[in-house]
Amino acid sequence: MLKVGLTVIIMFLIMGCSSKEEQALKEYHSQNKIYNKKLQKTEKIQLYSADEKVTKVLVTATYLNKQKVKKQQKEDEIFILGVYIEKSEFEDFDTEAFSLTLDGKKYKSITPLETDSPYLKNISFLTPWSQFYLVHFPYTAKKSFDLIFNSAFYGEGKLHFAKVAKYVLKKKPF
Asked: Which CATH number is 135's domain given?
């Protein structure tokens, strides 16, 4: 009888530990599930001027392709690219001073996005001073790849992406 009484008391204590904040957090997470999934597929780089150590270029990229359980079809690799270039004579990304490749392959198409575009609805790192582009690259069979942004003036930055969770690709435990 004593064991049953202690068990009931312990169960009430454990149930009392789930607080209103925990429930609110669960609700917030379920409402923002798409945002959180896209946040996991987002990378950022900064390129600096050599003499001033000031950010001259900020690039954010979100990988939009979904992981598929069935055999993957050969679809384009699609990214939303956010580019901030400090005010200068080269503030437009489409000039020859900048290049973008996915494992050495040039993009197939690049389309500027308006600030009210549905593509930008759940994207993290939205900044009012960045220009956003929808970029299509040819299909790659690799599970992980690098998106390389190169500037003639500020150097090169690599954004590492994977079609599967990145921890799956590592052979070492955490």
From this structure: 2.60.40
